[in-house]
């Protein structure tokens, strides 16, 4: 990940992942769609410390090859402007980021924006990704987003969008074709040709006699 402040991108990613994991452990319950961490309002948006955040891709179920558009909304519910808020979305395994608006910085594991939000207003961030395939044993596709105040490593608020993975039928085309039917077919054709030659030869002999 490109870090405009000159810091280590790998270290920032590790901090973000640890923070998301800590929040997931604190609030382990997951709704069928869109788990939210923090205090919830009536619409399911996470709200805490003067900020609310939500993430949604408008899907309940995803298939391999789907292109997904994530919409993230961060609202400043406080009475003071928020400057330099860092918003980081996790990119799950098997997902490729295609585009990110508003100068979003992308890596294999995250998308990161910097936003300033006046009091009482909100900002909407979007990105497009392609879901290729999930690791074996994965039942859901989950992407979390967290907001961090300037200079802080602990997120203020986080939210997660979680979608069911569609069942994948067996890849018949990738299964090797058994060799024995071909051998049997060749043998049968050879026997049939031999019988035909013998019968034709006998008929010709009878005619000649």
From TrEMBL:
Domain DUF11 residue range list: 51-129
Transmembrane segments annotated in the record for this chain: 179-199
Pfam families: DUF11
Tree of life domain: Bacteria
Keyword annotations from UniProtKB, A to Z: Membrane, Transmembrane, Transmembrane helix
InterPro entries: DUF11_rpt, Ig-like_fold, OmcB-like_DUF11
Any GO BP: carbohydrate metabolic process
NCBIfam families linked: B_ant_repeat
Name under which the protein is recorded: DUF11 domain-containing protein
């Amino acid at each position: 990940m490109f870090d405009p402040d000159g810091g280590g991108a790998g270290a920032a990613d590790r901090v973000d992942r640890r923070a998301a994991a800590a929040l997931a452990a604190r609030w382990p319950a997951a709704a069928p769609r869109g788990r939210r961490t923090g205090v919830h309002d009536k619409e399911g948006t996470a709200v805490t410390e003067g900020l609310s955040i939500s993430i949604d891709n408008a899907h309940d179920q995803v298939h391999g090859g789907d292109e997904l558009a994530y919409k993230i909304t961060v609202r400043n519910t406080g009475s003071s402007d928020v400057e330099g808020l860092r918003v980081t979305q996790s990119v799950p395994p098997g997902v490729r980021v295609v585009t990110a608006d508003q100068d979003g910085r992308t890596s294999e594991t995250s998308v990161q924006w910097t936003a300033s939000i006046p009091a009482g207003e909100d900002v909407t961030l979007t990105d497009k990704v392609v879901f290729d395939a999930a690791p074996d044993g994965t039942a859901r596709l989950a992407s979390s987003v967290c907001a961090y105040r300037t200079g802080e490593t602990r997120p203020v608020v986080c939210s997660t969008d979680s979608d069911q993975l569609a069942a994948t039928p067996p890849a018949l085309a990738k299964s090797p074709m058994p060799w024995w039917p071909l051998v049997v077919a060749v043998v049968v054709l050879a026997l049939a040709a031999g019988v035909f030659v013998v019968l034709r030869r006998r008929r010709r002999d009878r005619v000649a006699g």
